[in-house]
Amino acid sequence: MAIESLITDHLDLWTAAARPKSRAGRGGNSKLELTGIKKLRELILELAVRGKLVPQDPSDEPAPVLLERITAEKAQLVKEGKIKKPKALPEISEEDKPFALPEGWAWAVMPQVVKNDKYAIKRGPFGSSLQKSFFVRQGYKVYEQQHAINNDFYCGEYYISDNKFEELKAFEVKPFDLIISCSGTVGKVAVAPLDMEPGIINQALLKISLNTLALTNEYFKVLFPAYFMKTETLSELQGTAQKNMVSVDVLKNEPFPYPPIDEQHRIVAKVDELMALCDQLEQRSESQLAAHQALVETLLATLTDSADVDELAQNWARLSTHFDTLFTTEASIDALKQTILQLAVMGKLVPQDPTDEPASALLARIAAEKARLVKEKKIKAQKLLPPIAEDEKPFSLPQGWEWVRLQQVVTILGDGLHGTPNYDSNGEYFFVNGNNLENGRILIKPDTKRVNKSEFEKYQKPLTDRTILVSINGTLGKVGFYSDEKIVLGKSACYFNLSELLSKPYIKRVIESSYFVDYAFSKATGSTIKNLGLKAMNEFSIALPPVEEMNRIVAKIDQLMAICDQLKASLQTSQQTQLALAESLVEEALS
């Protein structure tokens, strides 16, 4: 199957096969990773290094002949005393050849195709060679990993003196040399430009000076990620931080598929052509996804903009007829979930019942309950907060609802331990933080630290069956209910004990809504790691419905969330099927 046909005959599959990226940032809506196009890119490179991307030309000088010619030229240079006799190369066994090569190709090793220079393959200097020798824009430049990763030779500020350069000249990098990142992010390749500043590489780089009459830099940039990084010796470095490139000697002995020099040029041209097509597919897919998401958000906004429950019902009916075309990504389903929660906290999800006890009467009963507990010295009197200003009320409330600060409906609000307890691997209590909270539960993870009973007694908080825990540091707004777990609470979570008269599930849904998340981010401090203070938690204003309506809202939310979860499960099954089909096409093309 021609590679162009493989792409064009299955465009829908390549662009449809996708999976959500990991959640990150505010709101947490997952974006899609276009796995079909990613696999297509990998397939193009794999076909390239196996000799299946372009047809062979019988008029090309065969690779074995070219290698013999290079070997003869080296022997002549040795005879003339211009270079030292190179080490004998080990014979490449059949076991070291993972697949059959086309006519005219050969298996080769790097010493056969580099310049006649003892420093042609060199890892940067380790240890203290470069320490305390930097100057700002003076002397010779030190090239670092960032130059390979970003393919940018003009950034960076580290330099060494002329004397230090002479001492480390074995590590000099020159125009058209290849540099490869060797630590952490391993395997990124860049070609040094003609106008680069003179300099050397540091320990995070590998330098290779190719004999470009034997192996072109452009083909090597295809070969290294598509073949070398997938060999048994280097494959474990893929996608893992804090890994280190194997030794130079190992790389020198790693056989690789070597095409004729003219075919190398044709392969690179075809790879560039097909990668440009992948770019177009990716841009089109991303544009379509962005337009789809904008349409979803616009239509969902008609729900939250509904004047009342009746108008909402009409807008919902119009939306529901297009569910199969609108909610086709995890991001769109997550947006639907957030809309449901927003409707709930605005009082638009279920109709009001005039026979319900109004929230004002409920608040009076809560205030009386708290006054009694203060009088009985079971809780402390709370400092009065200012009334809720009009600009703190982002929407109008239905009949029977009231604006209320969180402090008014809780008996206590605090956070966890500011510091680190003494851990005990045999302890029966767990030290939990905000990252242990998920969907109303406290999750004890394999890496959750333990403490003993004395530490628990030293740092325990007044947690009860009315306690709600909320993450207030890093990820904001994760919720867990306390259910007699043996825990010590850390500072990245706060706790509050809700009045007996209120619905815990309803308050949980309020905190999970974008209404709370927006408030939390507006009040949080810190640029990289967000932190929401207890004062802001106490002052959070809640639209409080009658308690009977709270229960109806929670029931409706649960019903609609179940539908969303069914949509998401169906979507995930479809994505897995599309991904399996894409993988099947890849296997077929490679077989």
Automatic annotation (TrEMBL):
Sequence ranges assigned to domain Type I restriction modification DNA specificity in this UniProt record: 151-289, 398-569
This protein's UniProt keywords: DNA-binding, Endonuclease, Hydrolase, Nuclease, Restriction system
InterPro entries in the cross-refs: Restrct_endonuc_typeI_TRD, Restrct_endonuc_typeI_TRD_sf, Type-I_RE_S_subunit
GO molecular function: DNA binding; endonuclease activity
Top-level division of the source organism's lineage: Bacteria
GO biological process: DNA restriction-modification system
Pfam families from the UniProt entry: Methylase_S (PF01420)
Similarity field: Belongs to the type-I restriction system S methylase family.
Protein name: Type I restriction endonuclease subunit S
Taxonomic placement: Bacteria, Pseudomonadati, Pseudomonadota, Gammaproteobacteria, Aeromonadales
